[in-house]
Design brief:
Layout: E1 5-9, H1 16-24, E2 32-38, H2 44-54, E3 58-64, E4 67-73
Parallel strand pairs: 1-2
Antiparallel strand pairs: 2-4, 3-4
Length: 77
């Protein structure tokens, strides 16, 4: 089974809503997107998580290899 997964370094996201809109425009149903947040100095993991959850995405927080990540799956419409 092929995994359709993309990893994006989101450590430098400053304008959460605008950046997420750009990223999610090309995000297709059935894909998994991993946003690699890194050290989370500015608590952007929570901001991004909340923004995605409020837009109806299936999101999970993860901590892998010393880095904060958000795993996003697009729910079927």
């Amino acid at each position: 089974m092929e995994r359709n997964e993309k990893i994006i370094n989101a450590e430098s996201i400053m304008n959460t809503d605008a950046t997420l809109s750009n990223i999610l425009n090309e995000f297709k149903e059935g894909e998994t997107l991993v946003l690699d947040i890194g050290n989370n100095y500015f608590n952007q993991t929570d901001d991004i998580y909340n923004a995605l959850e409020s837009k109806g995405y299936d999101v999970k927080k993860s901590f892998r290899n010393g880095r904060n990540q958000i795993i996003i799956n697009k729910r079927p419409q």
